Each structure stands twice: as C-alpha cells, then as structure tokens.
Amino acid sequence: MDSLDSEFTGATVAITGGAGAIGSNLVERLLTYDPEEVVILDDLSSGYRWLLPEDEQVTLIEGSVLDEEKLKRLFKHDPAYVFHLAAHFANKNSVDHPETDLLVNGQGTLKTLQYAHLTGVERFVYASSGCGIYGGDAEIPYEEDDFTIRHDTPYQVTKQLGEMYTYYFHQLYDLPIANARFFNSFGPGEVPGKYRNVIPNFFYWAKQGETLPITGDGTETRDWTYVGDIVDGLVRMAVVEEAVGEPFNLATGGDTQVIEMAEAISDRVETDAGVEYVGRRKWDNKARIVGSIEKSRRVLGYEPETGFEEGLDEVHDWFEDNWDRIRNCAEF
Ligand SMILES: NC(=O)c1ccc[n+]([C@@H]2O[C@H](COP(=O)([O-])OP(=O)(O)OC[C@H]3O[C@@H](n4cnc5c(N)ncnc54)[C@H](O)[C@@H]3O)[C@@H](O)[C@H]2O)c1
Q: Are 99 and 105 in contact (CB under 8 A)?
C-alpha cells in the first residue's frame, strides 16, 4: 500500500458491521495506520465484541443501521471514510428470513447512504457479493461488467439492490462510492454457526470428530479468498481515486473443490471421520465460482498474497487459540 496507507493516518473511519468476520479484520488493519478513530455501528446479531481489539482508537456503538438515533451517533463522528459491511448474512438465512434480509440489506443500506450523503464523506465502500451479481451461467472467470437479475436467494437480490442504491447516490449526488464484490471470504474471525460459511463450520465439526456434510457431489468449486486480502482490497478501494463509481471483484482468480477443502481441514484437525453427501440445496446452483481480478489488479494494485493452504493454517491456529469462546458462541 505504501503511500496510500497515510491517507488513514489521523482520519476518522466508520464501519457498519465492524464487529463481524470481515469487519473485525478491517478494524485491525486500520489501526496499523494510526487513525484518529475507528467508529463501529454493529447490533452484534452475528458479530462479537470479543473480536474487536481493545484500543482507545476504537469506539463501538451497539445498534442497528435501521435505527436513526444510532446512525446519527455514528455520523456525528464526521467520518471521512465509511465501510458499509452490516448485513443480514447470508443465503440460507435470507431464505429463512426474507423480510429481515430486505430490511437490513435494503433499507439499512439506503439509510446509511443517506447519512453519508448528508454529512459529505470522502468515500463510501459497500460490501457487495459476487453471488449477488453473477449468474450461474456467466462465463468463468466472472468479470465486473457481467451480471444477472435472476437470483436464487433473497440475499442475492438485496446485495445487488445495495449496489444499485450506491450507483444512484453516485449519479444523482456525486457520492464517491465504490463496490467491493467479495468471493467466499475465509480466515480468522468467522465464528461458525447455522448461517455461516462452510470453512468455519467444517473446522468446528471436524474438531468434534463429526462427519463433514457436503451439499452436492463435492466437485463444486469456490474462489475462497483470504480475509486479509479482502481487507487489503477494501482499503485500496477507499483511497484509490479511480475506484470511485466502480465495482471490483475481491477474489483470487482461482478455485478449489469443496471435497479438497474438506480433506485439507480434516488433515489439519487430524480427524478421519470423513464426509457425507447430503444432497444439493435447491437454491445453491453454482457449480463453479471464480472471480476475475484483472480489473482490481490494474486499477487498485490489488494482489492476493495468502494462498488457500496457508489461509487454512491461519484459521486452524485461530480455532486452537479461541476454541472455548468459539464453542460458546457457535449456534446451529
Ligand atoms: N463472508 C463472505 O464470504 C462474504 C461474501 C460476500 C459478501 N459479504 C458481505 O460482507 C459483509 C461482511 O460479511 P461478514 O462475513 O463479515 O459477515 P458477518 O455476519 O460476520 O458481519 C456482518 C456484521 O453486521 C452486523 N449486523 C447485522 N445486522 C445489522 C444491523 N441491522 N445493524 C448493524 N449491524 C448489523 C453483524 O452483527 C455482523 O457483525 C456483509 O455485508 C456480507 O454481505 C461477505
């Protein structure tokens, strides 16, 4: 990042959803730049206070992006940069709770944009999602200009809706927005649970000697991207001038099969409980997901640095170090 780092030195940064898996890693990164303050608005519905560093530069406002009073408190800090990561997460959760999904991801994003516009922020970075933009029939690797409006889950609909709102604010009010399309983030900080991603859940089950349930035939692939690399992309999107008004894939450009991932986790945990095939979920239609990172490389200077195996080692270490807390928090 070199000279770009200094943009955050002495700056006030707001993060909605900052106590979550990606947000808490972003907080850690921002602190290395010595900001004036990192202010977080998070209702702790899927985030945890213990994920946040205890640091006088970090302020947590506990509350919802749907709550005007809490939003006023957040924007009273006059942030220069806003990372809007708060969301009702993710696909299965939205199938079970479609109205909450619309409220938080739709109205919550609209409200946060309104305050960012009223207070005049320097950059608004929105956490979009590759799965909410690209269709199963899109050419691999997915490029930013491709998209579908035929989605499989409410979450995909509302993550795209969030992007649409950001473009509207950019076009009508010149709000300097940038859209980060994440592809299957993984890394330390993601507590397993009923609605969480497969990697933390597989670690959780493997550590307890349980069989790993594969919802498909195991040959499906995903572009698992280490959270540290996603954070690096986010930070770049907040300061690179050419990022304004643009979407960027934060991915690796490669993919790994689900069965290979399950075996890699079993090896690390030293379990021989194996896998079981439990059938594909009706909404889970993408056999392969890979994001092109050409644009992110060219415009942002983004380059993922942590490989899949190395990233799994980091998750494994994090589970070992925090097992009691993780076990207490995980809900299925
Ligand atoms: N993890 C991924 O693989 C992935 C992929 C694509 C997009 N994303 C997006 O990235 C963002 C962060 O994802 P994550 O993996 O850290 O998920 P997460 O669930 O760990 O983080 C979301 C945070 O938002 C908070 N939150 C939820 N509802 C809220 C509300 N109404 N008001 C305030 N805070 C609220 C939660 O408590 C949590 O801390 C989300 O917007 C998600 O949609 C994540």
A: no
